[in-house]
What does this fold into?
Amino acid sequence: MDNLKNKVAVITGGNSGIGYATAKQLKEQGATVIITGRRKEAIDKAAQELGVTAIVADQSNITDIENLASKVKEDFGSVDILFINAGITGATTIEQATEDLFDSIININFKGAYFTLSKFIPVLKDGASVVFLSSNTASMSYAGTSIYSSSKTALNAVMKIAALELAPRKIRVNSVSPGPTETEIMKKIGLNEAEVKTLMNTIVDKIPLKQMGTSEDVAKMVAYLSSDASKFITGADFLMDGGMVLA
It folds into this structure.
């Protein structure tokens, strides 16, 4: 399959999970893929496995973002696909929130994502596709998720405004909002296999389709939004949570 042949794709946070799966999917469809990440060892290992290019960059650091955009422009000329995927989670009640937790989540999920788009706009080719990784929590309200949910809600607002601002250049901007995925659950720190299974069963019970999402599901949606098949779609958020937001 070569739907994305001759296209250059940049994926932030591409060394694991959804970013890794998307890099694999885009490469399989013919794209030249660049992945980024904060940890050199992890990003280099992933790039070697995938057969793609790795560039170390911390999405929470504006200087890193500027250097990344310059490096990509120097080495590849322009970008056809930008998947702004890097992000972190964190839970706390509003009463117990700390400034450090607030800053760490907002600096990566919102500020970093915002300026990744900002600094890459001059590098984007006319007709390019930009996809933000959002979350179904932007459409739901759960105790303990105020900072994380706010970061994703803000991201969706930026996505819509960017879609308007970049429309004259035929650059499309969309977001994908997954619910719980198997990758995220398996990374829960301190849980043994039995505890992970219990947690997954509890979450699945809240999903109308009674199944977890996968990184590959999201990767396929990003690939679709990066292709000519979606050339009339912009400013849209795609919920991928098995109907969880409806429950």
